[in-house]
Structures are given as C-alpha cells and as structure tokens.
Amino acid sequence: MIAAIIDGKAFAGALRERIGAAVPAFVASTGRKPGLAVVLVGEDPASQVYVRSKGKSTVEAGMASIEHRLDDSASQAELLALVDQLNRDPGVDGILVQLPLPKHIDEASVIAAIDPDKDVDGFHVVNAGRLAVGAEGFVPCTPLGCLMLLKDRLGDLAGLDAVVIGRSNIVGKPMAQLLIQQSCTVTVAHSRTKNLPDVVRRADIVVAAVGRPEMIRGDWIKPGAVVIDVGINRVPGAEPGKTRLVGDVAYAEAAEVAGAITPVPGGVGPMTIAVLLRNTLVAAHRREGLADPVGL
Ligand code: NDP
C-alpha cells in the first residue's frame, strides 16, 4: 500500500481563505476588525520568525495584528502589566505570548494572567479544564489542526483505536482529549510506555508528538492506519553544513504501510497558524456576543 499524502498546507490555505471570507461580516456588524496581540520577549531567532509569520497571516486574513516586543531583560512584572493592559483592551480578542520565555520569567504565571476568553493558544488551565469537561473554550492550535485533518480524511472517528505518542500540555494531552470527545478509544504513550511498537500497532490513528527524529518506524504501523506526524526535527542534510526537517515518523517506511500520512514539512506545521487565526476569529465573535462563525 502506498499512503495518501495528507496535504496540510492546502488544507490550511483553504481554512485561511474561509477565515478571511468571514471577517467582513464581523467588521460590518461590530465596526472593528478582530485583533490578535502577539507578545515577544527577547531575541530568540526561531520565535522572531514565528511572530513575524503570525503577524503577516493575521493581516492577510483581514484582522488587526498588534505586536509587542519586550527586551530580553524585561521583568516578569513588566510582562504581567502588559498582559493586564491587553486583557482590558476592547480591540484585542486574542493574546498570544510567544514561548519560550527568558529563564527569569515564570511561564505558568504569565499564562495564568491571560484572560481565558482571549487565550487563543488554549494554554490557560481554565481552557484545559473546559476541554477536559467538554465545555466551550479554546483548544491548543496544533492538536485542533490535527483533528481537522483527521476528520477531513476519515469523517466519523467513533470507535477507532487512536494512539497519541507524547503527553505534553501543548500537544499530546489536548490531542487525547479531542479524540476522546470524538469517541475514539485512546491510548496515550510516553517515554515510560512499555513495548511502544506493539502499542502503536493497535492503532487506526497514530498521532506522533515526541520530538525524536524518525523514531516511529514503518513496521510499527498497522496497515491502512492514518498517521499524523506533529514532530519537527532538524537533522544534518545530505550536503555538509546543510540541515533538513524530518518528523517523528520514518516517513518513507510508514508511507508504504499507512492508509494516509502527513508529510514533514507541509503536513501539521501549516495548520497551527491557520487554527490560531480561527481561534482569534471565534474569540472575537464570542466577545461580541455573536454566534460562532460557521464552517470553521
Ligand atoms: P515535549 O518535549 O513537551 O513532549 C514530548 C513527549 O514525547 C513527552 O510526553 C515525552 O514523554 C515523549 N517522549 C519522549 N521520548 C520518548 C520515547 N522515546 N518514547 C515515547 N515517548 C517519548 O514536546 P511537544 O509536545 O511540545 O512537541 C512534540 C514535537 O512536536 C516536537 O518535535 C515539536 O517540535 C513538535 N511541535 C510541532 C508543532 C507544529 O507543528 N506547529 C507545534 C508544537 C510542537 P515524557 O512525558 O515521559 O517525558
């Protein structure tokens, strides 16, 4: 079997078009654009790239992008004061504090300070709790993007065996919650899991969020399974001094067995920003007392 390639880039592009198409109706009924505030502390090069690309995508979707850059030496009190200001700003619907933060700042305290109804990253404990009990809230962007790709591929997920490898608060745990909500039978694997290959072999759906290059091998995959590879790992390339990106799944091997698989890059990666825009638009509607936009 040669797996179908799940084109996350195309899916994310179509989602962004639907978001952009829904913005004018919001502007017409409220007289303002939905606004996403992104806060960057320090000079981390990868974070700078992410923040720039989030800002560009926000503007492309017709929304307002509000960027705040604080110096590496900014204190926790300064950052908390900025979060408080954004919480109270009526033109700000979503607040994203780019992680990681410098070592002297306690990330948990900063995330806890964000108004849960503006927490478009879905990292606040209130939103984690809402997800766990099935209440309306905000779900972290990467796992929600994975779920969208799975539903697009498989339709109804009820009764399927799903294995999530990784139990981080950002990916693995919310992914497992989402799959439980879809009535999958969910196993969450991690570094202490015994016989991981056998655990993965049971799965109709495999979500890999480990951060280890090509750890999941082709002969771990049940024939026909759908494989979602969240991993983004930089490894040495073919030419000296060059690097390339690989996922957590050995793609070439797995593609011979799986029914469908996300490539890296071009699979899950592009979904994250698209879902961030989606969450921002949804936050804007909820804050204005409007019904959630349909089809997002
Ligand atoms: P974390 O490092 O927070 O979590 C990794 C998880 O993998 C942990 O639960 C860990 O287990 C588990 N793990 C580590 N080694 C093994 C092993 N040998 N066998 C089984 N499980 C193992 O990572 P994240 O969840 O933040 O990210 C995972 C990957 O996804 C990374 O490659 C990251 O770059 C990528 N990512 C991609 C995004 C995107 O596409 N936009 C967004 C976010 C992340 P334990 O808990 O026991 O330590």
Keywords summarizing the entry:
single chain; 16% strand; six-stranded parallel beta sheet; Rossmann fold; binds NADPH dihydro-nicotinamide-adenine-dinucleotide phosphate; 296 residues; three-stranded parallel beta sheet; alpha/beta; 2 domains; 10 helices; globular
How does this structure look, described?
Helix content is about 40%, strand content about 15%. It has about 300 residues and is of the alpha/beta class. The chain has 2 domains: about 30-120, Leucine Dehydrogenase, chain A, domain 1 (Rossmann fold, 3-Layer(aba) Sandwich); about 140-270, Rossmann fold (3-Layer(aba) Sandwich), CATH 3.40.50.720. The strands form 3 sheets. It has a 6-stranded parallel β-sheet with strand order 1-11-8-7-5-6. A 3-stranded parallel β-sheet has the order 3-2-4, sandwiched between helices. The protein has a two-stranded antiparallel ribbon with strand order 9-10. The structure holds NADPH dihydro-nicotinamide-adenine-dinucleotide phosphate. NADPH dihydro-nicotinamide-adenine-dinucleotide phosphate binds near residues 189, 192 and 196. The site of NADPH dihydro-nicotinamide-adenine-dinucleotide phosphate has 25 residues, from helix 10.
